[in-house]
Amino acid sequence: xxxxxxxxxxxxxxxxxxxxxxxxxxxxxxxxxxxxxxxxxxxxxxxxxxxxxxxxxxxxxxxxxxxxxxxxxxxxxxxxxxxxxxxxxxxxxxxxxxxxxxxxxxxxxxxxxxxxxxxxxxxxxxxxxxxxxxxxxxxxxxxxxxxxxxxxxxxxxxxxxxxxxxxxxxxxxxxxxxxxxxxxxxxxxxxxxxxxxxxxxxxxxxxxxxxxxxxxxxxxxxxxxxxxxxxxxxxxxxxxxxxxxxxxxxxxxxxxxxxxxxxxxxxxxxxxxxxxxxxxxxxxxxxxxxxxxxxxxxxxxxxxxxxxxxxxxxxxxxxxxxxxxxxxxxxxxxxxxxxxxxxxxxxxxxxxxxxxxxxxxxxxxxxxxxxxxxxxxxxxxxxxxxxxxxxxxxxxxxxxxxxxxxxxxxxxxxxxxxxxxxxxxxxxxxxxxxxxxxxxxxxxxxxxxxxxxxxxxxxxxxxxxxxxxxxxxxxxxxxxxxxxxxxxxxxxxxxxxxxxxxxxxxxxxxxxxxxxxxxxxxxxxxxxxxxxxxxxxxxxxxxxxxxxxxxxxxxxxxxxxxxxxxxxxxxxxxxxxxxxxxxxxxxxxxxxxxxxxxxxxxxxxxxxxxxxxxxxxxxxxxxxxxxxxxxxxxxxxxxxxxxxxxxxxxxxxxxxxxxxxxxxxxxxxxxxxxxxxxxxxxxxxxxxxxxxxxxxxxxxxxxxxxxxxxxxxxxxxxxxxxxxxxxxxxxxxxxxxxxxxxxxxxxxxxxxxxxxxxxxxxxxxxxxxxxxxxxxxxxxxxxxxxxxxxxxxxxxxxxxxxxxxxxxxxxxxxxxxxxxxxxxxxxxxxxxxxxxxxxxxxxxxxxxxxx
Length: 851
Hints:
The protein is α/β, with parallel strands linked by helices. It contains 27 helices and 21 strands. Strands 11-12-10-13-14-9-15 form a seven-stranded parallel beta sheet, with helices on both faces. It has a six-stranded parallel beta sheet with strand order 16-21-20-17-19-18, with helices on both faces. The chain has a five-stranded mixed β-barrel with strand order 2-3-4-6-5.
C-alpha cells in the first residue's frame, strides 16, 4: 500500500475509534492536507482522487458524527476501488456499547511517529506536518502527554528496557536513536542537554528589547501567508497582541502553521527578539498553545545533541516521557550518609531536573549531583586499580644508600632537591617487593631522563633488563644518545664500571632499524646480554622477548594506547613501571585520572637556566624579528623557526616549512645556512639534519612540530613560532623548551596568522608565564582533559558533566570514595549492591589501565 493511502487508513481508523470527534489529528483532519497532497502526488495518486479526498476532509469539521462516518466510509470505498486498498467499512453506531472498529484492521498503534512520516517535524526550510494524536481528545485540563501510559509499557521494567517501548519511537525510530548512542531507557535518562535556553521569564511585548531571548503570551490578531523568492517559498506572518502592544512573528517555509492558527487563538511564544525595518519581530520561534504542557516554551528548555532525522521537539518529548515514567523508579545507589553530608540532591530528582529544570538553582544542584557521581565512580575504579597493582609482587632490589649516593656523585652535575626526592621515591619503590607504579612529571629540561637512568642502573646490578618506550623515533634517538652517554662516562650498567660498557649492553630499536640489526637486538634481549633497549612501538612487536624484564619506562605515556603499554608490560612478570611526562599534570587530573599512580614532581630547573623571554608580535613585525635573529646569529647563536604545515595547501593559508625555507634562504638570510626538518623526511635524513644543526653546520633550522621532541641545542637562543595560534598551550610550551638550554639569554617569539589572532587567549597566557603547571591548568580549562588522558582510562566512559578543573568537587568525591572503598573494596555488602551495579555499568569488565 502506498504511504499516503496507508496514512489515511490510520487516520480514518483513529477517527472511528474516537467516535468521529475530528481529533485524530491535533487541530482537526484538515491539518494534514498540505503535506498529504504533496505526498500523494509524489506517489502518482490520480488528481481526481486527491481532489475528492481534499474536498471531503475540508468539509469534515462541519458534519455531524454520523455524517462524518458516512463521509469517511464513502471516501474509503472510492480509495479501495481506485487504489486496491483493503476493504474497510466505517460505520457510526448510535449506541456506544457497540464496537465501531472493523475486524479487518488491527487495533491501532500509537502513531506519534516524529521521525517517521506520520508526524514528522521538519527543521527550517522543510515542511512540518501536524501531529497525529492517538490519545484522548485535547482539552484545557488534559494531562501532559508523558503521563499517559501505554499499555505496552511495563512500568516495572528496568532501565535496560529498549527505547522502542516508548510512545512515538517504535523499531524504526529506535534505529535512528542508536546513531547517538541511545539503545535503552537508561541511555535516554543520561543523554544530557548540551545547553539550555532560558525561556522562563515572561515579558510584555511593549517591554521587549532587541537581541534578548524571552517568552511572551499573546492572542493571535491576524494570520497571513505570502510567497517569497519568486514563489519558491512561503512565509507565514502572524500578529499577536498581549494588550500592551502587537508583535509580528514570521515562520519561513512552514505553511502548515497557518492552518494551526486562527484569530483569537492564544499561544506561548519563545525566541530571540529580532528587528526588521525598525520594528521588533521574531523569526521562527518555538511556540505552543496556552493549554498545552510546555516543553519547548515558557521554561528553561533543554537543547540536545542531534543527528539527522531527529528534531529537538521530538527528542524532548521522548526524553520527557522516559524521565516521567522511569526517573522516579531509579534507585539512588549512593549511601545515604554521603548524600546527607554532601548536601546532594537525590538521584531521581537530579535526573528530572537535569533535563527539565524548575529553576536555575535546581539545574545547578542536579548538575553537581551527576558530576559528583561521575567522579565518585571514577575514583572507585582508580582505587581498585591501585589495589590490584599493590597486591602483586615484584623482585626486590636492595641497594644501600651509599650505592645511590655514589652513582649520583658520578654525574657531571649536582641533582636538584626535587631530583633527589624523586630518586628517594624510586629507591623505596624498588625495595618494596611490589611493582613500582610511579608517574615522574617535570617541566622541559628538569632532568627526568637522569632519574630514569639511575633506576635502570639499579635494576641492571641484579641482571635485570629495562625497556624505555618513546612515542617518536626522534625522541627515542635522543634518549638513546643521552642515556648511552651517561653510561659510557658516568653510570654503570650491570656489574661493569662506566669505562667497561659493552656495545650490546644498550641498543636502539626502531621501526626503521634494518632487519639484520633487529635480529641481533632480539637475540640479545632473549639471552640477557642486552641490558637496556630504547625504542618506539617496535618494542612491542613480536617476536621481541626478554630474558628478565624488570623495569619499563614509558615517555609521554598519554601518547600511547592502553593496549600498547600493556603489551610492553606483559613481556615481563610484574615489572616495575615508571611513567615520564614533560607535560605537567594539573592537580585535579593527578587526583582523578592518575589517582592510581604514585606521583613524583620535579618542579625545579637545573641551576643556571635563565627565564625565556616570550613575546607575541603581529605579522607586520616580521621584518623586525628577522633583524633580531640576524643579530643573534652574528653572536654565534642559533635559531629555530617553526611552521604548522610541511607544504602549502589549497585548504589552508598557513605558512608552510618547505616554501618558507626556500624563501628565507634566498631572500632573507642569504649569508647563513638554513636546515629543513619535517615529518616526511626519512629517519636517517632527520637524524642528519639535527646532527648538522647541533654541530653548527646550520645557523637556522626551519621545522614543523617534529622539533617538539628534538635534541638539545645549547647555542639555540631564539625560537620563532609562526601561526602560533594554531598550537595548544602545552605544545607551545614544548617548543619554547627547545631554547634556553645553555647559558645565553633566550627568546620565544609568537607570530599569529593575522592581527586579530594576536588577542588569542593561549598566546597571552604564554607571554604571561613560563610555569608549566600554570599553563597545564589553563590548557585544561581551554581545551578539556582529552590531551592529558589519551586513551588511558579505557574502562571508564567519558565524563559528561564533571569539570576536571573543579578541585573542590573532585576532592569531596575522592574523599567519600576512599571511605566506601576502605570499608568494602569489592562492593559486596548488601547496601552497596546498587553502587556495584553503577560501577559495573561505568567500568564494564575492564579494570582500566594499570599505568
